[in-house]
Amino acid sequence: MKKITFSLFIFFYSLNFFSQDLEMVDKVMLSYQEPKSIEDLAERINYDFKTDIEKVRAIFKWMCLNIEYNTPSNKTLKSPELIYYFSEDDLKRTHVRMQEEVIYNVFNKRKAVCLGYTQLFSRLCNLMHIENELIYGYTKRSVNKIGYIPNRKNHAWNAVKINNKWLLIDVTYGAGYLYKGVWQKQTNLDYFDAKKEKLRITHFPTSKKWQKYLKQKPLKEFCYEPFYQNAYLKYRIKIIKPNIGEITINKEDNILLKIKKIKNIDNIKYLFSHENKLRTARIKNDDFSTNIFFKNPKKDTSLHIYIKNELALEYKIKTE
């Protein structure tokens, strides 16, 4: 018993120490001087920090603070340019040149879309000899995209290997968010060493390797799910029904959401996008589940569900 207690103490002490180390890194990066080049930035980070986890956190923090999202008109990754080449070596040189242009444009202009974020992040890791991979795939960006199966990749993120463990990092999501088409800079540390269960409901990698790593469901199932938000994970919501994100009802029935019973949750509110009016849901508990009732919107709309004033779930509503 003493051995178990001691082991647990060491485990939690290590977690706390690890967290404090990264907080120190964040504070240092807030006052970092302007680097002259990508190589200069890598050299300074490599000199200032000892461990790989500290160096990777420093890269993440610097990029969140200094690279602004360049709002594109098209929300997919650009189609490859038409390339003329005379040999395989010529093609490789052209690809390298194009990638170099992306990386240096991001650094010099301080603006990027997801591909630019990931490539600059990867370059900095490479300069510090930290093993990393770029991951390409899809993300659901809004409730309106429920049921839409993309035919082109629309996102990219990173993985780094530290102490034989892969860490998933999304600098684009970590750097801020778009609000009504305007970039809001706000560092979100949830996307540094992001939890698998979080990325599993928002990110779909095209690589079989990373699908297996995330234990990801098939693409169609991913695309048809409700639009999950932070409170969904925070309050450990488990949906019984409906499991698909588009609810079809007639104009007489109310909407029912049935979830596994959760304790101490009696404040559930909702709004329909066409009304923008916050309402209180009716809740009925039985032995094993919680039934949540919402009024009939009488028209096609989207339903936004809040738990303790935090957005948890979004559904697309179709009326017959």
TrEMBL record:
GO cellular component entries: cytoplasm
Residue ranges of domain Transglutaminase-like in the record: 106-173
Pfam families: Transglut_core
InterPro entries in alphabetical order: CAP/Cytokinesis_protein, Papain-like_cys_pep_sf, Transglutaminase-like
Protein name: Transglutaminase-like domain-containing protein
Species whose genome carries this gene: Tenacibaculum aiptasiae
